[in-house]
From TrEMBL, chain A:
It comes from the Bacteria. This is Uncharacterized protein. It comes from Yinghuangia aomiensis. The lineage of its organism: Bacteria, Bacillati, Actinomycetota, Actinomycetes, Kitasatosporales.
UniProtKB/TrEMBL annotation, chain B:
Residues 15-358 form the AMP-dependent synthetase/ligase domain. The keyword S-adenosyl-L-methionine does not apply. The lineage of its organism: Bacteria, Bacillati, Actinomycetota, Actinomycetes, Kitasatosporales. GO terms for molecular function: ligase activity. The keyword Ligase applies. Belongs to the ATP-dependent AMP-binding enzyme family. It comes from Yinghuangia aomiensis. This is Fatty acid--CoA ligase family protein. Keywords: Ligase. Pfam families: AMP-binding (PF00501), AMP-binding_C (PF13193). Residues 406-481 form the AMP-binding enzyme C-terminal domain. It comes from the Bacteria.
Length: 108, 498
């Protein structure tokens, strides 16, 4: 069985079906089942191997490096793709959407 | 997973991009990550529980920050300008520290405290076998001592999740282009020095360093390194503007100039906008306790305010802009009641980047997570935040609360005044009386009567300074904070007031 990874700010997760890696930018307020290509995402340092699974049809449009993904119509939960892959990010089977980047001026 | 994730992420995608130093001789992100991993093992091997950094800004500092994080050890950069006795006192407060010291500083570490020289540690880190378990995000990543201008220095605890919330909430991953370069001129022990280590690695931006600030050295470095982004404290910008003396800075490559850490006088900002006509200006406001920036006045805000004839828009040049997303602000007056726009009170802030926790004291957040900044502030109707200075600096004269910033802003506009500080000193009749300490502009020494008349025309009579004192300079910390306590002590110690 897959141990669901904790979705706290700064938590890093990886896909079981492709090379996708994400970091949690904002934790969810409610319950979210973060999946990639239809399979639950694992903690980056989880013991189980990535496996040989392939993304499910309909959840195989891929992830884009540096983009933020969130649940459509909600603004609490957000992850950032730090390595792209061929699977799609989803809450269960509901695909996440790309969020527009905030254009904040650099202050550091 | 802690802040070391930022370096791991960036070096995973752009390992060969230059991270620190010049484009031709600098070191890449893969090199930084390798040294951070090896350096962590070297720190772990000492058995220490805390890492102290005693050195100037250099390529070693970011490696030290990430190495300490990877070793799950709190990192405390210390002010190398402190006297030995103060340095020893601060080091003595830490649990089993190991000190990473520049060779020039090494002899200042108290006997019995283990020391590694930064250059040697940096060299060995490239070969050491990486080891060490990942840290816990609720662990303390960085502990910074407050500058102690108003009280004994306090150790501010910044946990990994505060710093990660700040970086992830305020910057974009790999937003920097190949030709970007940030110039870091603030020292490692300033919160902006920590923030720059995190934000620039996350953005994938090359960093150049200036260890000892001079206006000429800063301008030369901007030219030589192809600097596109820079952060300065107000005293640095004031010195650059004075050095230019009306001439253009002639650095068209500098796209963004951020300033913060203390109040910038309106006259310096005006001169800077003229000297850097193609540069975007950003005013960043934050505290150590809030993991650096919590509000920014961006380039568009500067342009709109600068171009406006509406005094309500124009005055926003003196604001710190609007809060970052994820940061809530509340202005509270008497009895902690929230006040409306244009009303002044204490600034409280809340958000995932806000720590509000001190070593040996604990958290000062209220039960709902709000942090009292002790800054006096107000907002305008559009939500722009104005800071009127520290609550501790408030002068109470005849029962009336007076923010020095209000009087300073009026006097700062006087053409004969280069710098001014208004302080309260003990007075038998009024409790405190207001003294304006003035540094005059070159060759144009104003007389006290003229300044009194200038003030009376623009301020209510109780706020006209009771006394004007002239000095050649004002005392500042190296990071640009005015030493008001020192001014008050010197003024109060005079034999008799003139």
């Amino acid at each position: 069985m897959t141990e669901p990874a904790r979705l706290t700010t700064g938590a890093r997760l990886r896909s079981q079906v492709c090379s996708t890696e994400v970091i949690v930018v904002r934790p969810p307020k409610g319950a979210v089942e973060l999946t990639c290509g239809g399979a639950p995402m694992l903690a980056l340092d989880a013991a189980q191997p990535g496996g040989t699974a392939t993304p499910e049809a309909g959840l195989d449009t891929g992830t884009q490096l540096g983009k933020r993904y969130a649940i459509a119509g909600e603004d609490d939960f957000e992850v950032l793709v730090t390595k792209p892959g061929v699977g799609s990010l989803a809450d269960g089977r509901t695909p996440l959407e790309i969020k527009a980047a905030k254009a904040l001026p650099s202050s550091d | 997973m802690g802040i070391e994730a930022l370096l791991d992420m960036t070096s995973g995608v752009v390992p060969d991009r230059v991270a620190t130093g010049s484009t031709t001789r600098g070191r890449c992100f893969a090199d930084m990550a390798r040294r951070a991993a090896g350096g962590a093992a070297l720190l772990t091997a000492t058995g220490a529980r805390h890492v102290v950094y005693l050195g100037v800004q250099s390529e070693v500092f970011p490696v030290a920050v990430y190495a300490a994080a990877a070793a799950s050890l709190p990192m405390t950069p210390l002010n190398y300008r402190l006297p030995d006795v103060d340095l020893a006192e601060l080091i003595g407060r830490l649990d089993r520290p190991v000190v990473l010291a520049d060779s020039e500083q090494r002899h200042r570490v108290p006997v019995g405290v283990p020391v590694l020289t930064t250059a040697e540690w940096f060299a060995h880190a490239a070969e050491a076998e990486p080891a060490g378990p990942p840290g816990n995000p609720s662990d303390v990543a960085v502990m910074l001592f407050t500058s102690g201008t108003t009280a004994r220095p306090k150790g501010v605890l910044l946990r990994h999740d505060h710093l990660m919330a700040y970086v992830l909430g305020s910057a974009e991953f790999l937003a920097a282009g190949d030709d970007d370069c940030a110039l870091v001129a603030v020292p490692p022990y300033h919160i902006a020095g920590i923030a720059s280590v995190l934000s620039n690695v996350y953005a994938g931006r090359r960093v150049a360093y200036l260890a000892d600030f001079t206006p000429r050295g800063w301008l030369e470095t901007v030219h030589r390194e192809g600097v596109t982004h820079a952060l300065v404290v107000p005293t640095m910008l004031a010195r650059v503007v004075r050095h230019l003396d009306g001439a253009p800075a002639d650095v068209p490559g500098l796209r963004s100039l951020a300033y913060g850490g203390a109040k910038l006088s309106a006259s310096v900002l005006q001169a800077a906008l003229a000297a850097f006509p193609t540069t975007d200006f950003v005013n960043a406001y934050g505290l150590t306790e809030t993991s650096s920036t919590i509000a920014v006045l961006g380039p568009e805000d500067h342009r709109a305010a600068f171009a406006s004839d509406d005094p309500g828009v124009r005055r926003r040049l003196t604001s710190v802009g609007r809060p970052l997303p994820g940061v809530e602000v509340s202005i509270r007056g008497e009895h902690g009641r929230e006040v409306g726009p244009e009303e002044s009170g204490e600034l409280w802030v809340r958000g995932p980047q806000v720590s509000g926790e001190y070593a040996g004291i604990g958290s000062v957040l209220d039960k709902d997570g709000w942090f009292p900044t002790r800054d006096v502030a107000w907002v305008d109707a559009a939500g722009y935040l104005f800071i009127d200075g520290r609550g501790d600096d408030t002068i109470v004269r005849g029962g009336e609360n007076i923010a020095p910033a209000e009087i300073e802003a009026v006097l700062d506009r006087h053409p004969g005044i280069a710098e001014v500080a208004v302080v309260g000193i003990p007075d038998e009749e009024w409790g405190q009386r207001t003294v304006a300490v003035v540094v005059s502009s070159d060759g144009d020494i104003p007389d006290a009567e003229g300044l009194r008349a200038w003030s009376r025309e623009r301020l209510r009579s109780s706020r006209t300074p009771d006394e004007f004192v002239f000095r050649p300079t004002l005392p500042y910390t190296p990071t640009g904070k005015l030493l008001r306590r020192q001014l008050v002590a010197e003024l109060a110690a005079r034999p008799t007031a003139s």
